[in-house]
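$ ./design --mode recover --in tokens.txt
reading tokens...
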């Protein structure tokens, strides 16, 4: 088998920054309780690595008096201003790992809101990033499809932002509907370049490979979009978290493309590549 890696895959800038900050914090505060408010990133293997280093995930609903004086790392997806204030009031020592691009979206949403715009966010209303940005523009609308955009009834002017991990196609489809309905419309391109680069890299990879393996957490939005894009490109594709999940049928192809979501550690990608090239060796390693 020939394994072709996508030329752009794995950790994006924001995720690598968040992980590096968490590891440094664990090293400098060894022995002290350290928490992330919700999962730092959407990858269970990376979170397990942090847990072994002493960094525990604290569900938002459990942010109470226990965190007074403790270090709480704000995850890459960010938190709402209200939640940040609550943590500070509880006496938490905050270490901010919010992706700079998410922070920029929060600032833009706040400026739109303060200027009297009806704010529209395009993305998944349950995604951590969207939840954080909505806190900066109370009363904003979240839409995930052109149909949902058609159902809006907004006062103009209208300001539009995207979840950083949506695809250009998803954003453009919603924006076409909004352009047809509102004349006073301001659309900001807040899609992360890492999302665009990975989608473009996948397209180039699919042109050379017979099948595609996409590595990343089940709850990773950008990984799920890579998987859907690979299927749309007409290639057999599998979304896996680890090498152990590789299906037997993938080994029937001569040229397999390998890509990974923006929250997938380099070590996991390497393990999957090794398993594809030498399944016997990978199996022995897993058993050991």
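writing sequence...
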């Amino acid at each position: 088998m020939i394994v072709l890696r996508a030329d752009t895959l794995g950790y994006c800038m924001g995720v690598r920054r968040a992980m590096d900050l968490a590891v440094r914090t664990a090293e400098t505060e060894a022995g002290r309780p350290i928490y992330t408010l919700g999962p730092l990133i959407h990858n269970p293997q990376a979170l397990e690595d942090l847990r072994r280093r002493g960094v525990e995930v604290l569900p938002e609903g459990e942010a109470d008096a226990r965190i007074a004086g403790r270090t709480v790392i704000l995850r890459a997806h960010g938190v709402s201003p209200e939640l940040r204030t609550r943590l500070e009031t509880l006496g938490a020592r905050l270490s901010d790992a919010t992706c700079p691009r998410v922070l920029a979206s929060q600032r833009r949403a706040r400026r739109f809101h303060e200027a009297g715009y009806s704010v529209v966010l395009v993305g998944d209303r349950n995604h951590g990033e969207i939840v954080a940005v909505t806190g900066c523009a109370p009363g904003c609308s979240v839409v995930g499809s052109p149909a949902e955009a058609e159902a809006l009834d907004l006062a103009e002017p209208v300001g539009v932002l995207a979840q950083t991990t949506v695809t250009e196609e998803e954003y453009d489809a919603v924006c076409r509907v909004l352009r047809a309905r509102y004349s006073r419309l301001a659309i900001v391109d807040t899609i992360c370049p890492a999302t665009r680069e990975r989608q473009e890299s996948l397209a180039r990879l699919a042109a050379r490979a017979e099948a595609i393996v996409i590595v990343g957490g089940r709850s990773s939005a950008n990984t799920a979009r890579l998987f859907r894009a690979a299927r749309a490109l007409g290639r057999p594709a599998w979304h896996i978290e680890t090498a152990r999940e590789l299906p037997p049928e993938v080994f029937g192809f001569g040229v397999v493309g390998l890509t990974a979501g923006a929250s997938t550690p380099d070590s996991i990608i390497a393990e999957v590549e090794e398993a594809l090239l030498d399944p016997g060796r990978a199996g022995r390693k897993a058993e050991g």
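exit 0
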